[in-house]
Amino acid sequence: MEKTEEPLLTLIEKAKLGNQIAFSALLNCFWNDVYGFQLIRTKNENDAEDITIQTFSRAFDKIHTFDSSYEFKTWLIAISKNLHVDLIRKSKKNVLQSSDGSNNEAIKKVLDDAPSPEDSLITEQNLVALLGYIKKLKPHYQEVINLRYFQELTYAEIAEKTGEPINNVKVKLLRAKKLLAEIIKNQN
């Protein structure tokens, strides 16, 4: 148990400093836990996926508030639960979605100029084969991949075009790249 806690705390500290690789590692490590939790609660894959993306977006936005005396997974699940409760309240009140002025500094500091392993794998593929692989993704993942890599839009431009917060765009793109890389690896 101690072996997994020390690297996790190191990843969290790096994420607090805005390290994109640490964010990616945390996302990969805890995605299934949060998604599974939401799938049980919502009984809907799309809702579970959307709430999971929002959970990581919120967590990365507020990572500086994480207290290491608690379990990171528990903290993520609490965020996820609160987001789901908020979603239910909003749908019951039938309130239109509005953007809040929350602090997005942690995510804004994440640099994406260094290609991740997923980026390298994507760029090495034949374009025709790559398009075939992309078609295997869910439509909302296809959209962010297309906007980022084929239309070469910035995160802010993608957020504006999709009407989503920039944090959600970043997390969704990170997840899309991971899924695409898995599809490509499984085909080769």
UniProtKB/TrEMBL annotation:
What is the protein named?
RNA polymerase sigma factor
One Pfam family recorded for the sequence: Sigma70_r2
Q: Which UniProt keywords apply?
A: Sigma factor, Transcription, Transcription regulation
List the signal peptide residues.
none
The entry assigns this protein to a family as follows: Belongs to the sigma-70 factor family. ECF subfamily.
Task: Identify the residues that the record assigns to the RNA polymerase sigma factor 70 region 4 type domain, covering every copy.
Answer: 129-180
Native organism is Arenibacter antarcticus
Q: Which NCBIfam families match?
A: sigma70-ECF
